[in-house]
Amino acid sequence: METMTNAITIEKSKTSKIHDVDFENLSFGSTYTDHMLVCDYVDGAWQTPKIIPYQPITLEPSAKIFHYGQSIFEGMKAYKDEAGKAWLFRPLENHKRLNKSAERLAIPELPESFFIEGLTTLLQLEKDWIPETPGSSLYIRPFILASGTGFHASPADAYKFIIACAPSGSYFSGKVRVLIEEKYSRSANGGVGYAKAGGNYAGQFYPTQLAIEKGYNQVIWTDDNNHEYIEEAGAMNIFARINDTLITGPTSDRILDGITRKSILEIAKDEGIDTEVRNITVNEVVQAAKDGTLKEMFGAGTAAVISPIAGFGYKGVDYDLPELSESYATRLKKRITDIQYNRAEDKFGWRYEV
Amino acid sequence: METMTNAITIEKSKTSKIHDVDFENLSFGSTYTDHMLVCDYVDGAWQTPKIIPYQPITLEPSAKIFHYGQSIFEGMKAYKDEAGKAWLFRPLENHKRLNKSAERLAIPELPESFFIEGLTTLLQLEKDWIPETPGSSLYIRPFILASGTGFHASPADAYKFIIACAPSGSYFSGKVRVLIEEKYSRSANGGVGYAKAGGNYAGQFYPTQLAIEKGYNQVIWTDDNNHEYIEEAGAMNIFARINDTLITGPTSDRILDGITRKSILEIAKDEGIDTEVRNITVNEVVQAAKDGTLKEMFGAGTAAVISPIAGFGYKGVDYDLPELSESYATRLKKRITDIQYNRAEDKFGWRYEV
Ligand SMILES: Cc1ncc(COP(=O)(O)O)c(C=O)c1O
Ligand SMILES: Cc1ncc(COP(=O)(O)O)c(C=O)c1O
């Protein structure tokens, strides 16, 4: 394993913005902490990371990020427990996925030590920024962008790895209504859908806007071939409960291998819930909604945690899901957040102290 | 049509870099001129463009371009004729396509006058940068990036439209060998393949690198469903000549509607060449290569103009294309470049004086 040759340098900001922040009323991802981590890839190697005051980035107009979308990112959270200790959730999984994304986007892989030491050093400095308000956390955004230049569609020769943090409240307010997509797609077979590549998200904006105009919050993506299978919901993996079985689609090159998804699957099994990982057809979900066997659906992802779905639209018809007093969504969300916030035993070994 | 309320402001650079440039040995897209055009979209409107010295761009770390790949671009060229006059080729088509891309990427459309007046004002200032060396031209890169901020996967509220220019030689040196792709894909049905969206290009880098390692220059993209149809070649549309018929695939939501492609189709018809716009299967091309009816293949695009293909690989077998003394590629390239460089009559009305 490649390790850093020098210690991370820290340049502290002269003043703090923390007292301007209303921690009781945090939006999602729009307030940033005092510092950020920056690590440059030049001359064929990742250089020693540095922590500097949060500040603008300056790039050449010909930087490849602007032209060819060569960028990847991760999304993580830091949680504070009642004793004031800070925790991460399965951070090594984020590092592994960052490198999977890097390979597909022809970006040089980042050594594990750069990621983990960079992250923990930054978080130790920003610890006071981790909210204590229930349901809030410090959203962490590690990302890599192509800073190398040239109007030539080929990989850049220079990159920047950056970690920025934003104290955040909840991603969605309340339950969401979703539209099952019949026309647009988010990813191709053999494409980059399984990577957290920037371009995957911009492509979702327009179809999502159309859905919002029709009164939905989010699109449920289906396969691009026949729009036959339920695949993902924006930046969330998707689960359906039919009767008492919890079902989610298998990962593939079209679907992001979500850390929340796989944790939820493990917790559900631990809870004695029947789970199935298999293709879910749109028809099956519509049929189950009609005959009342579709008990619930929810999205799962780091940002939104578990986001219950109130109903869905398909081919101009709206289907409402029942209000359950004992939903899997509520039960699983409690289990996972109890682990994340160190309120319960972590038999899986997922918590990681900062 | 929305028009600018104020004239474009010009801030001239104090010194010029033009004397450092070796115009006889230009690479592609790696030397930039003295000025660039910048136009900001803020508060719901495109502001008056300004021309400023070519310089770095400064953005917040949370700018959406870095996280969600919200960017689009165009590629154009300015040509100088023997009398020293400067010409563009069908620039209104580039503007139209920029706005088609903008719609799909949820970017506000740019009024035509901003594009055309911005472009011509900049080019008048940079006229000396248009190379006179045969085969060289001034490559022009108009692009829009999301400068608005937020770690929330939704469209930005601010954008930058920029035009930068690079005096350039040829994109490929000589004929190219291509690999017909069997695994990876560049675009989905219902996706963003028809748009010049940044993310489409980064997704091509890794499969193209794999092809380069195997000794090819470029990938021929096939449909993501069964890899059955020949679709595009990197940043070029693709043509095949079987017997004496020139064939290219139809445009679709997976394929960029190339300006070179459609111009070549018109010129070919004018030349009395039989043309067909229809799906081309991989099998058909392999079969035609085997029985000798595949006379030639070439890529067509602004950057590479017409790029003849020397041979292709498919399922581990290499197929060579014959050396023709009278190829369509040579004939059509001469016709189109004669129009572009004002060396011949332009019966189509495609030339546009700067
Ligand atoms: C497309 C997509 N699917 C699913 C997820 C959920 O993944 P995770 O649970 O690792 O956050 C995300 C968000 O990270 C995503 O962007
Ligand atoms: C994917 C793709 N296909 C085809 C083309 C050719 O289009 P045009 O002839 O308009 O340059 C380009 C380049 O612009 C491209 O990026």
Account of the protein in words:
Two copies of one chain form a homodimer. The longest helix of chain A is centred in the middle third of the chain and has 16 residues, at 198-213. Chain A starts with 8 loop residues before the first strand and ends with a strand. Chain A is built from seven helices and 20 strands. In chain A, strands 1, 2, 3, 4, 6, 7, 8, 9, 10 and 20 form a ten-stranded mixed β-sheet that branches. A six-stranded mixed beta barrel of chain A has the order 11-12-13-14-17-18, surrounded by four helices. Chain A has helices at residues 64-68, 91-104, 112-125, 198-213, 259-270, 282-291, 328-340, and strands at 9-10, 35-42, 45-46, 50-53, 57-59, 71-73, 76-80, 86-89, 137-146, 159-168, 176-180, 218-222, 230-233, 236-242, 245-248, 274-277, 294-301, 305-314, 317-320, 351-353. The first copy, chain A, is globular and about 60 Å long. Chain A folds into two domains: 9-168, D-amino Acid Aminotransferase, Chain A, domain 1, CATH 3.30.470.10; 176-340, D-amino Acid Aminotransferase, Chain A, domain 2 (Alpha-Beta Barrel). In chain A, a hairpin with a 2-residue loop joins β14 (236-242) and β15 (245-248). Chains A and B meet through β5, α1, β9, β10 and α4 of A and β5, α1, β9, β10 and α4 of B. β5 (57-59) of chain A pairs antiparallel with β5 (57-59) of chain B. The structure holds pyridoxal-5'-phosphate (2 copies). One pyridoxal-5'-phosphate is lined by residues 75, 196, 232, 235-237, 256, 258-261, 301-302 of chain B. Chains A, B: This is Branched-chain-amino-acid aminotransferase.
